[in-house]
Design a protein that fits this description.
The protein is built from 15 helices and no strands. It is mainly α. The chain has 2 domains: 155 residues, Tetracycline Repressor, domain 2 (Orthogonal Bundle), CATH 1.10.357; 129 residues, Up-down Bundle (Four Helix Bundle (Hemerythrin (Met), subunit A)), CATH 1.20.120.
């Protein structure tokens, strides 16, 4: 009888590879919107509780990114935009990415539940599940509405932040959810217009691939026309002051103007690129203005 021993090769992944798995650029926007939800919530939050909540949301967002890259490794390798990610490059194995993601997710949800509250932990768990199981594993490869429905996962962080601060939910965090939810389609469809060949090569049924550029441009304008008034709604409903309202009207008008340019564009993708870039700035500025609007309260008593 002979005994064969399997040889375990050492991992070549470095710290930078694991950070890349967590999608730090996406994660930063998620954490920022969660911070705004935490700060604008009524009542007082102990600084340690606030820090733990944001840490868990950060880790949970990173877990979702790692699990997304684990499952999407095959299509990432076929797309120019994602071919340099750690798994297609061979820096991280799919098994390592999956183990990393599941470990982070478990830590984030359990810690948030034990040290903050169960509602925030449940919302975080649902967000990770929705992004990985519903969006990544199902919607992304099966329907051109993948971004519309899947956008719910990216829209939940302000609600998690609010729940971490209060242990409950209200109309205001739902409004913040709706702003991000309706922001997601024009943001990603603008990207998909000038990356349509990439998505087609990977077999992803993004709207430009399935319905064509003209319909995509029309849908971008439609969602933008819904988004801009939603962005102003916190002021109209009395949740924010006039400075926020003026800023929301201004940047909402710029967003609509860019969406109209996308609709009129027939050659090239300059307008689509501009809309994609400005849409990131739009969401950041909108939530930053909410934060500034509540900043005196946050400094003098919210974290106490």
């Amino acid at each position: 009888m002979s005994v064969t021993f399997a040889r375990v090769e050492p991992s070549i992944a470095g710290v930078g590879d694991y950070i890349a798995l967590m999608k730090p650029r996406v994660m930063s926007l998620v954490v920022f919107t969660a911070l705004v939800g935490l700060v604008v919530a009524p009542g007082h939050v102990h600084p340690v509780i606030g820090f733990v909540a944001l840490l868990c949301i950060t880790v949970g967002a990173g877990a979702a990114g790692a699990l997304n890259m684990w499952y999407d490794a095959d299509i990432d390798a076929r797309m120019a935009r994602t071919a340099a990610r750690p798994i297609p490059r061979g820096r991280v194995t799919p098994g390592e990415a999956a183990g990393f993601g599941f470990t982070l997710a478990t830590f984030a949800v359990v810690t948030l539940g034990l040290l903050v509250n169960v509602l925030a932990a449940a919302l975080l768990a649902f967000t990770i599940f929705f992004y990985v199981a519903i969006y990544t594993m199902w919607l992304k490869r099966s329907t051109p509405q993948n971004i519309v429905i899947g956008g719910a996962a990216g829209a939940l962080p302000p609600m998690i932040g609010w729940a971490a601060a209060t242990g409950s939910l209200a109309i205001e965090p739902v409004l913040l959810f709706l702003i991000i939810f309706f922001w997601t389609p024009p943001h990603f469809w603008a990207l998909s217009l000038y990356r349509s060949e990439d998505y087609a090569r990977a077999g992803i049924p993004m709207l430009p691939v399935v319905a064509g550029a003209a319909e995509t441009r029309r849908q971008i304008l439609l969602y933008t026309l819904i988004l801009a008034p939603l962005g102003v709604a916190p002021w109209l409903l009395g949740y924010a002051g006039p400075v926020y309202g003026a800023a929301a009207v201004l940047i909402g008008g710029v967003l609509i103007a860019l969406a109209l340019r996308v609709c009129r564009e027939r050659e090239g993708h300059r307008a689509s690129r501009q809309l994609f870039g400005f849409s990131i700035l739009y969401l950041f500025l909108l939530f930053a203005m909410l934060l500034i609007d509540r900043l005196p309260g946050a400094l003098f008593g919210h974290f106490a």
